[in-house]
């Protein structure tokens, strides 16, 4: 047990330090740079009013939202990979994010926002979950391959529906919806819910770490060891849907975080979910935080969609990881 705690403390401690460093970079870098000593003074309640306003009211909520969304997507991806026992699984491949995007875009078309858009996103994600599970149900239950292929088809269908919705959208609303669809944290000013959900998920899943490790070996092994595999599978899918819905409602569609981060950490830390899930939360949050910092600064004062940055970083990284992992 002591070795287990030491084994978990070192990588998680390093990832936590990396997250703090990324947060400092995000708060200090921008169209107007703020040096580290001034950031420290602001943290202590000092500093001039303009810098305090810029950091506390503009950059800090966006940075915390980026960290929370990245962590939510990475944990959701890790859970989907455990469920399907496939390193290529993530909420976007399985159509969860497409359903969430459909719900959120529908709310936007009706002029709704805030909690109503978030609720619509969760409803879309939940509907997509039930649809994929229902269509993938064969005579012998839900085989991982059947579930993955069904999710890919459903995700393609959501993509077509989203394109149709955008074609029917009034011209004055179209630019904002397109930018949001590519991943946009410009209006993410309320990080409380995503951060709380991320923390509660990581804490709540810790007692299930052993069961998740067993489930990753297959439902038969899980049943032989006394784990209710079917109930756990439904729980994993429901949690992943909720995490994805909140992430999509907060920042739009941001790809590759839920795919690359769990795969990368599995190669480094192994398959113990008691370590992997909190590590995914920290690493995913750090990755999206740095990506959003690049999106804000690379062509400043203009901004890029953060989804563009994650795609540019994620594609070569994932191809490299696949090459390193062997056949």
Automatic annotation (TrEMBL):
Q: Which InterPro entries match?
A: ABC_BtuC-like, ABC_transptr_permease_BtuC
Q: What residue intervals traverse the membrane?
A: 63-84, 91-110, 116-135, 147-171, 191-213, 234-261, 273-291, 303-323
Where in or outside the cell?
Answer: Cell membrane
Query: Source taxonomy lineage?
Result: Bacteria, Pseudomonadati, Pseudomonadota, Gammaproteobacteria, Oceanospirillales
Quote the Gene3D superfamilies the UniProt record gives. ABC transporter involved in vitamin B12 uptake, BtuC
What Pfam families does the record tag this protein with? FecCD (PF01032)
Look up and give the membrane topology term: Multi-pass membrane protein
Protein name according to UniProt: Iron ABC transporter permease
Report the domain of life of the source organism: Bacteria
| Swiss-Prot/TrEMBL keywords | Cell membrane, Membrane, Transmembrane, Transmembrane helix, Transport
Q: Which family does it belong to?
A: Belongs to the binding-protein-dependent transport system permease family. FecCD subfamily.
């Amino acid at each position: 047990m002591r070795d287990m705690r030491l084994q978990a403390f070192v990588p998680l401690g390093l990832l936590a330090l990396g997250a703090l460093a990324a947060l400092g970079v995000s708060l200090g870098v921008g169209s107007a740079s703020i040096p580290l000593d001034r950031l420290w003074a602001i943290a202590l309640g000092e500093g001039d009013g303009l810098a305090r306003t810029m950091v506390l009211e503009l950059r800090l909520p966006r940075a915390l939202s980026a960290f929370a969304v990245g962590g939510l997507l990475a944990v959701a991806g890790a859970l989907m990979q455990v469920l399907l026992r496939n390193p290529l699984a993530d909420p976007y491949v399985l159509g969860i994010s497409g359903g969430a995007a459909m719900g959120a875009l529908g709310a936007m078309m009706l002029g709704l926002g805030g909690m109503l858009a978030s609720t619509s996103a969760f409803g879309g994600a939940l509907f997509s979950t039930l649809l994929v599970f229902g269509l993938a149900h064969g005579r012998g239950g839900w085989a991982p391959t059947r579930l993955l292929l069904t999710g890919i088809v459903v995700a393609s269908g959501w993509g077509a529906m989203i394109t149709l919705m955008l074609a029917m959208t009034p011209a004055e609303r179209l630019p904002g919806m397109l930018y949001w669809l590519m991943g946009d944290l410009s209006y993410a000013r309320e990080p409380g819910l995503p951060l709380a959900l991320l923390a509660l998920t990581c804490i709540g899943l810790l007692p299930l770490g052993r069961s998740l490790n067993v489930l990753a070996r297959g439902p038969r092994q899980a049943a032989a060891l006394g784990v209710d595999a079917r109930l756990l599978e439904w729980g994993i899918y429901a949690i992943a849907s909720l995490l994805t819905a909140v992430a999509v409602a907060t920042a739009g569609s941001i790809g590759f975080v839920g795919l690359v981060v769990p795969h990368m950490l599995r190669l480094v830390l192994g398959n113990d979910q008691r370590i992997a899930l909190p590590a995914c939360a920290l690493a995913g949050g750090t990755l999206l935080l740095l990506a959003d910092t690049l999106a804000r600064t690379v062509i400043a004062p203009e901004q890029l969609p953060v989804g563009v940055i994650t795609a540019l970083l994620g594609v070569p990284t994932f191809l490299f990881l696949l090459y390193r992992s062997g056949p």
